[in-house]
């Protein structure tokens, strides 16, 4: 009986401290979009670059759709867990 309680408490602790992978993917997609955008400031944009930008925007929108209305405090907490 003690083993069951011990294992249950470990399982609860592990599940509560696990990071939100989908949110981490959202952050990563945003970082990739920002990095690509910053490279385009002083360049003539080619059709290939436009296509890449659209792809990155779509990826970010898809990855971040569940976090559009989340409060800033909660987002900061999730961001910390992604590090």
Write the layout of secondary structure elements.
Blueprint lengths: L1 H16 L3 H19 L7 H18 L7 H11 L1
Helix pairs in contact: 2-3, 2-4
Roughly how much helix do the residues carry, as a percent range? over 70%
The average pLDDT value, as a whole number, equals 84
Radius of gyration: 19 Å
Largest sheet: none
Mass-distribution shape: elongated
Strand content: under 5%
| Topology pattern, helix = H, strand = E | HHHH
Number of strands: 0
Spatial gap, N to C terminus: 37 Å
Q: Low-confidence stretches at least 5 residues in length (pLDDT < 50)?
A: 1-15
The protein's oligomeric status is single chain
How many DSSP H or I helices?
4
Structural class: mainly alpha
Kindly describe this structure.
- With about 80 residues, the protein is mainly alpha-helical.
- About 75% of the residues lie in helices and about 0% in strands.
- It contains four helices and no strands.
- Helix 2 (about 20-40) packs across helix 4 (about 70-80).
- It is elongated and about 40 Å long.
């Amino acid at each position: 009986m003690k083993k069951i309680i011990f294992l249950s408490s470990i399982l609860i602790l592990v599940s509560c401290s696990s990071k939100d992978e989908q949110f981490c993917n959202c952050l990563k997609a945003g970082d990739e979009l920002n990095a690509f955008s910053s490279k385009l400031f002083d360049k003539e944009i080619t059709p290939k670059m436009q296509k890449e930008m659209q792809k990155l925007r779509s990826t970010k929108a898809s990855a971040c759709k569940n976090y559009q209305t989340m409060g800033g405090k909660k987002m900061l907490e999730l961001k910390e867990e992604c590090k």
